[in-house]
Amino acid sequence: MIQSRASVTVRYAETDMMGIVYHANYLPWFEVARTQLLREQGFPYRQLEADGYRIPVLEVAAKFIRPAVYDDNLTIVVTMREKPLLRIRLEYEVFRGEELLATGHSAHAFCDLNGRPTRPPPAFVAKMGETFQ
């Protein structure tokens, strides 16, 4: 299992007329956590793209439990529970302190620059093999 944490502070522009975070704004927070997890594993998105890889979203879902509001300090926990083969599945939890506000998941695949599915970079395969023994 691999896990990472990212922090965000809710901006006023991320709230709706009811004063709560608009649901679509959770997806960029998931991305912040996801890119941080990959960076911590030695695979920053910028380098993956420079090496000719893209990692598009195949599936994403979120469940909202409690609302986040302007100026909340949130922690997004992202977890990769299974060794990725051709797909990467990630799970997300959004917390305000100890309070769970939302959960979600996403699935991704490696593609080449033309959008065709491809195997992950050899270094990624090796790193995941070490991590998920």
Write the layout of secondary structure elements.
Blueprint lengths: L1 E8 L16 H15 L4 H6 L6 E8 L8 E8 L6 E10 L2 E11 L12 H10 L2
Quick structural summary:
This protein is α+β, with helices and mostly antiparallel strands and 133 residues long. Helices cover 23% and strands 34% of the residues.
Overview of the structural elements:
The protein has 133 residues and is α+β, with helices and mostly antiparallel strands. It has helices at residues 26-40, 45-50, 122-131, and strands at residues 2-9, 57-64, 73-80, 87-96, 99-109. It has a five-stranded antiparallel β-sheet with strand order 1-3-4-5-2, with helices on one face.
Unreliably modeled segments: none
Number of helices: 3
Report mean pLDDT, rounded to a whole number.
Answer: 96
Per DSSP E runs of 2 or more residues, the count of β-strands stands at 5
Helix content: 10-25%
Series of H and E elements:
EHHEEEEH
Strand order of the largest sheet: 1-3-4-5-2
Q: Compute the gyration radius: what is it?
A: 16 Å
CATH topology: Thiol Ester Dehydrase, Chain A
CATH superfamily: Hotdog Thioesterase
CATH architecture descriptor: Roll
* Head-to-tail CA distance between termini: 10 Å
Sheet of most strands:
5 strands, antiparallel
Strand content: 25-35%
